[in-house]
Amino acid sequence: MSSEVAILGAGMHPWGKWGRNFVEYGVHAAREAMKDAGVEWADVQFVAGAETIRNGYPGYVSGASVAQALGWNGAQVTSSYGACASGSQAIATARAQILAGLCDVALVVGADTTPKGFFAPTGGGDRTRDPDWLRFRVLGATNPVYFGLYARRRMELYGATEDDFARVKVKNSRCGADNPYARYKKSFTMEDVLASPMVSDPLRLLQICATSDGGAALVLTSLDYAKKHATDPAKIAGVSTITPQYPNTVIEMPNFSTDSAFGVGVPDTPFRDSIAKPAYEQAGVGPEDMNLAECYDLSSALELDWYENLGLCKPGEAEKLLNDGTTSLGGRVPVNVSGGLGAFGEAIPAQAIAQVCELTWQVRGQAGKRQVEGARAGVTVNQGLFGHGSSVVVKR
Amino acid sequence: MTQKTRTPAVEGWFTLDENDPRLLGTRCTKCENLFFPREETFCRNPACVGTEFEEVKLGRRGRLWSFTNNCYAPPEPYVSPKDPFEPYAIAAVELEEEKMVVLGQVVPGLGTQDLEAGMEMELVLGTLFEDDENEYVVWQWRPTEERSQA
To answer: Of A156, A213, A340, A355, whose CB is crowded by the most CB atoms within 10 A?
Structure first.
């Protein structure tokens, strides 16, 4: 049985700090995706929403919130949450419905309205059993603190430098400047990046992703249905929503500690190295077959970790890939030609979907100045706190 | 002025013994896996169905796995002990025997420039913040020796 579904349509609302209801961005993105697909709202049989937790009850039932705003059409509905990986949870659910033969046309949608500044725990009161509350209270461990720990570790292990991290930002900002959906359109220089204020040593403001408003949507269909609407559509060939294996020995948000490796042997594959594997395997491809990748650059330093986790190179070789131009537009496997999180800022439930939108446009040859020449296959990777791996392989 | 009550910032996660402060974890009585913060209901080893745990004091020393700092005040529920906020460092320390990395604030007065990966670190007690009646105590990491000048 084929495990592929067609991506008939992709749509986004531009990222920014618009301050409007997240449903507006979701509806806008959904309408764009349906227009792109040539599919009417009445034809959508299943709606998979990615949840947002900072917008009250409508955010928790985001699938229904967007469906209601589009006008109830009697579709089946679900809403998924996996933190930053929420989008791929929604994609995985829609794909499973299609592959099970339960529907032919599914709308996947994620949108968010974010507060200013650092992400903080949601809800009020003292929650002394909630690790996400405790990490702020007891450590002041913001998200950038974890990014800073990973970045420093990379410097210690592989000799990465502040210049390397800055170069990632410069590379991605050049692409972001050409992306109409990106929030930041400025092409930054090394001097700009290295002069920006330190936030969590060794990471500076321009190396840490912002929090943004935005929305992204996909129309996924069965391959049979797609045949009637498109020739040679983009396809989702693999999806991973993998969890870690015990013991997870790398510190993860929002934890205070790693698992102990005292009693049980460490798994052969560390968590982040395991994330893309199921997606590659389902697609019957490997990292060497990828023409491009969209990875979750919460910090510019983290992008380098992802090169290795995705199998684009061996551990310790990411700086070489960056510096010899392999991962730049025009290189062998460009990374984050959308501009990445550095140019977008994080709109949590929309982000994993937005990664797939970019790959869709790329494999169709519709990415304009950002186009990766001859792109036929690409991979996304992302991770949500509390153990959510996320990866999607898109091909044509 | 009356003495403030020394109150642990989190109940049951560490001892208040000034001379030998320790993090308090738990050990599954069935498979002997260790947990910090304490696990007391179900063993998280996927091959074990243990539901009974005994308290264990974790080792006080470890090696610095990585480190960073907060140059800006974190959002609530963090409470700054100083006004205005002063940047502070955060360490990830690998406990040798427990084979586990544990985060903690670094003692006040030391910044990232005073740290290098691999340094030996030890656990001490410090002040998270104070209110009118309480001094909220937290574990902190401190290098056992000064940084070698590279």
So the answer is: A355
- For residues B72 and B95, give the distance between their C-alpha atoms in angstroms, rounded to a whole number: 28
The alpha carbon of residue A356 and the mean position of all alpha carbons in its chain are separated, in whole angstroms, by 8
Per residue in A110-130, pLDDT (tens digit) is 999 998 878 888 777 888 889
**Rounded Cα distance, A327 and A161, in Å:** 17
Report CB contact under 8 Å: B68, A117.
no
Q: How far apart are CA B134 and CA A351, in angstroms?
A: 43
Distance, in Å, from the CA atom of B110 to the CA atom of B142, rounded to the nearest integer, reads: 8
Take residue A122 and report the two structure tokens written for it.
Answer: 């949601």
CA angle A40, A38, A3 (to 5 degrees): 95
Chain CA centroid to CA B130, Å: 18
State CA A27 to chain mean position distance. Answer: 20
Reference A340, options A327, A324, A321; nearest CA is A327
Inter-chain CB pairs, A–B, below 8 Å: 136
Put simply, whether B101 touches A (Cβ < 8 Å) is yes
| CA dist., res. A379 & res. A293, Å (int) | 5
pTM across the whole model: 0.96
What DSSP designation does A288 have? G
Optimal mutation site among A132, A133, A138, interface B, most CBs of chain B within 10 A: A138
ipTM of predicted assembly, 2 dp: 0.96
Distance from CA of B143 to the nearest CA of A (A): 17
Mean predicted confidence (pLDDT) in A35-52: 98
- Is B88 close to A200, i.e. CB distance below 8 A? no
Cα angle at A215 between A212 and A221, to 5 degrees?
Answer: 150
Q: In chain A, what residues touch B101 (CB-CB under 8 Å)?
A: 249, 251, 257-258
- Chain A: residues touching B (Cβ < 8 Å): 117-118, 120-121, 126, 128, 131, 133-134, 136-142, 145, 148-153, 156, 197-203, 245-246, 249, 251, 255-264
B97 phi, psi to nearest 5 deg: -70, -40
B24 contacts chain A (CB < 8 A):
no
What pLDDT, on a 0 to 100 scale, did the predictor assign at position B148?
63
- Write out pLDDT tens, residues A292-346: 999 999 999 999 999 999 999 999 999 999 999 999 999 999 999 999 999 999 9
Provide CB contacts within 8 A for A108, sequence distance 6+: A48, A50, A87, A90, A91, A94, A217, A218, A219, A220, A353
Of A356, A382, A384, residue with least CA distance to A143:
A384
pLDDT of residue A125: 81
Query: Which residue do the tokens 């496997």 mark?
Result: A333
